[in-house]
Amino acid sequence: MSDNFRHSSHEDRPSRRPAFLKCRHCGGEFSLDAPGTRHRNHCPWCLWSVHLDNKPGDRAADCRGGMRPIAVHARADGEWLLVHQCETCHVVHVNRIAGDDSERELLALAVRPLRCVPFPI
After folding, report:
1. How far apart are the C-alpha atoms of 51 and 59, rounded to whole Å?
2. Of the chain's two ends, which shows fewer C-beta atoms within 10 Å, N or C?
3. In a domain, 72, yes or no
4. Of the candidates 23, 106, 103, which has an alpha carbon nearest to the alpha carbon of residue 32?
5. Considering the entire predicted model, what is its pTM?
6. Within the chain, what is the greatest distance between any pair of CA atoms?
7. Residue ranges making up the domain that contains 61
8. pLDDT at residue 108 above 60?
9. Contact in structure between 69 and 109 (CB atoms under 8 Å)
């Protein structure tokens, strides 16, 4: 984790949130500012996350397990959501994708069921 801290938009009140994080899964560094969402909760390179929340943003989960990206879900309005499952406690969370998420990784999740068809094609 970087020692750089960014300032919040509230009159000179410093934020304790670091400007960049290092992914526990792939080691890539990424900014906490994410286009298209207010709260980045996953690595844009490998899409993995960490189980920090019970409810979005509460940081109340004691688990801290790795959250594996297992699928994408498309809303009726066309917005894609990322589905994570904790490797420690197996809870499932659904989160908005960010504008800088790896398109290759998102598409790989989307077509995964087609690679494992349970019947002959």
Report:
1. 9
2. C
3. yes
4. 23
5. 0.77
6. 62
7. 5-115
8. yes
9. yes
